[in-house]
Design goal:
CATH topology of the largest domain: Rossmann fold
Number of helices: 17
Strand order of the largest sheet: 3-10-4-9-8-5-7-6
Distance between the termini: 60 Å
Helix content: 25-40%
CATH architecture of the largest domain: 3-Layer(aba) Sandwich
Largest sheet: 8 strands, mixed
Number of strands: 16
Number of domains: 2
Radius of gyration: 25 Å
Strand content: 5-15%
CATH class of the largest domain: Alpha Beta
């Protein structure tokens, strides 16, 4: 049979004609369940078709959409994406310091064991001259609580698990001591076919890894150190070129990092700082196998626990994830700023009852009240992000969207349009809920509430960051009853107004067996891969046991002279 390219095929050719039975069944399925079908180059719900659209479902739209998607993939493969770097003289230009960090002074701080004194200023941290100068360039004047307590612990050479509110300065809390250690140890960037970083930062999303990389560039500015980022969706050849020029601080997503290691472009043997940002997400079911490959597998040359510093940071740490994290830590400290999994009072939270059929109009009316302020709208599904973006554009609202099915160029362009204010609304899935620091987001709207309280906390944390104030509005209906038992205590703790109907909903529910449901991504309840609450007899390997602080260089092999 002669091959006929898609562009030359005809619907009248029986070889390529759709089965009418398939067409009818598919049409009925889409109509019943509200699935999406192609229309005028886009996608609409089958049960929300425009009046002008033919009532009969046309399967040729599927073929056209498939061809368009294939052509997009071909163009992406033939023209790999490389992100444009900011010039050195501009990396501090967009930095916006916090305006009211004094709000954090009243937050309770607990550290276990409590045998290392916190510091009150950056001047008393004994930072080397180049790092101290970069801190001044960032216009940091006073350390936040997570920085005051965690930096002395890390500089004393101890593992750390830190839980602090969103927007409280966790990135600087682990980058500063890592860069300071490398300069004190005489580490320099040396070109080589195989990169041998001293510090490795793992992040769950591409956007967060890019953000951490930009912060790393600020703290390594004019220090002789090089910061490199590797992540999926971008041209690997460019990333390989950056690695071979020398790499001291490596920021990566797990998948692309393991690919680079397997191909011999990175070695883990000389890593002294292993840092997991958004550690609870990194250790859930989606990332746990990749983390184990990098840290524990026989193929990896990562230094063993105790011969490196392992640092974990997040705004939420469910108890079961803390148990799992102990496998990667050695005699670690646990830092808790506020309550684990809580949020800040600088974010005003509001819960509104909105039925599914009324959500779109309710969102349009709500966005009109914010004027030109930046608003981040969260949805649960990727297809809903595209659908809602088109619906808002039809109402003359400048918006864009970001989700996991977008190519990397589109994801970064969407973020840039939102940050610059060209689009005042960003519709996003949870790919944008973790760690992203977007200045001047005045409000977060949860069009679809998540199924667990951890994602709720991270989503609203995109506003009210770094001492600023923000507003979070959630659309609630019958489908969200599973989150009530955790949502109401969170609202009460941060002194938010609780609607009467929401409080009564908690009273009518039977007390749950656990304080929260199984964490998203778990296998078979609280146990995970043989590790659970009772699998290792309590707190694990010496966790929370006070010991004399270890010097930062003790137990480390000397860095090779290359």
């Amino acid at each position: 049979m002669t091959y006929v390219p898609p562009s030359r095929r005809s619907d009248r050719d029986p070889q390529f004609r759709f089965d009418e039975r398939f067409t009818h069944n598919h049409q009925q399925q889409h109509h019943n369940h509200g699935h999406y079908i192609p229309h005028n180059g886009g996608w609409v719900r089958a049960n929300e078709q425009p009046q002008a659209m033919n009532a009969h479902f046309d399967p040729n739209h599927f073929h056209q959409a498939f061809v368009a998607k294939s052509q997009q993939q071909v163009r992406a493969a033939s023209n790999p994406y490389t992100r444009e770097e900011k010039p050195e003289d501009e990396i501090f230009r967009e930095h916006i310091p916090g305006i009211d960090f004094n709000k954090y002074e009243s937050i309770s701080v607990t550290i276990t064991p409590n045998d290392i004194a916190p510091v009150d200023s950056f001047e008393t941290m004994n930072l080397v001259g180049a790092v101290a100068e970069n801190v001044r360039r960032c216009r940091y004047t006073k350390p936040t609580p997570v920085q005051r307590y965690s930096i002395p612990v890390v500089m004393a050479g101890r593992d750390l698990m830190a839980c602090a509110q969103t927007g409280s300065g966790k990135t600087a809390a682990y980058l500063l001591p890592a860069v300071n250690f490398m300069i004190q140890s005489g580490v320099t960037a040396t070109p080589s076919r195989t990169a041998v970083p001293t510090a490795l930062v793992l992040a769950p999303t591409r956007e967060l890894s890019i953000q951490i990389y930009e912060e790393g560039r600020k703290f390594t500015f004019r220090t002789g150190l090089r910061c490199v980022v590797v992540y999926g969706g971008a041209d690997p050849r460019h990333q390989i070129s950056e690695l071979t020029r020398g790499c001291n601080l490596l920021v990566a997503t797990p998948g692309r990092l393991w690919d680079m290691y397997s191909r011999g472009y990175v070695k883990f043997a000389y890593i002294r700082f292993l840092i997991l940002d958004e550690a609870d997400r990194m250790l859930d079911m989606g990332f746990e196998p990749q983390i184990r490959n990098i840290v524990q597998s026989q193929e990896s040359d990562m230094p063993q626990t105790g011969h490196r510093l392992t640092l974990m940071y997040s705004a939420t740490f469910p108890r079961e994830i803390q148990q799992l994290a102990w496998e990667f830590l050695s005699r670690h400290y646990f830092l808790q700023v506020g309550r684990v999994g809580s949020t800040t009072e600088s974010i005003s939270q509001e819960v509104r009852w909105v039925d599914d059929g009324q959500k779109k109009q309710a969102l349009v009316d709500l966005l009109a009240t914010f004027g030109n302020g930046l608003v981040l709208v969260f949805v649960e599904k990727k297809r809903d992000a595209d659908y809602l973006e088109r619906a808002l554009r039809a109402n003359r609202i400048a918006c864009t969207s970001i989700h996991g099915d977008r190519v990397q160029r589109e994801r970064e362009e969407a973020l840039q349009l939102f940050k610059s204010g060209a689009c005042t609304v960003l519709v996003a899935t949870d790919v944008a809920s973790r760690g992203l620091d977007i200045p001047n987001v005045c409000a977060v709207v949860q069009f679809d509430l998540p199924s667990n309280i951890e994602d709720y906390v991270h989503r609203i944390g995109r506003t009210g960051r770094a001492g600023k104030t923000g507003k979070a509005i959630a659309f609630f209906n019958d489908k969200n009853r599973n989150i009530v038992d955790d949502l109401v205590p969170l609202l009460r703790e941060t002194h938010q107004e609780i609607p009467q109907w929401l409080g009564e909903m908690v009273m009518r529910r039977a007390p749950p067996q656990h304080s929260r449901g199984p964490y998203r991504g778990q296998r078979g309840g609280f146990g995970r891969g043989g590790f659970g609450f009772n699998s290792r007899g309590g707190f694990g390997r010496g966790a929370f046991q006070p010991q004399a602080p270890m010097p930062a260089t003790q137990g480390f092999r000397a860095y090779p002279q290359r």
